Amino acid sequence: MAMASGLVLAKLVAGKEKQTLNKLRIIKGITHISAVLGRWDLVIDVEAGSIQELTMLVVHKIRAIPGISSTETLITTAI
Asked: Is pLDDT at 2 greater than 70 in this prediction?
């Protein structure tokens, strides 16, 4: 089975950064989190067994955290 992977760009709610990071760190499927400067606050590397599982991870786990104000997901692909 092919793995699905991607990057989730996330904006955080001001003042909830530490609580949000603590919640993100325990989610299965998140492989790395980078804090960045610019339009987005975090770049979250994600992996799942399929696109459907990746969708569930982003929609029902990452976006469900109250400290996440918005996301944009980039699905990785081979060229």
From this structure: no
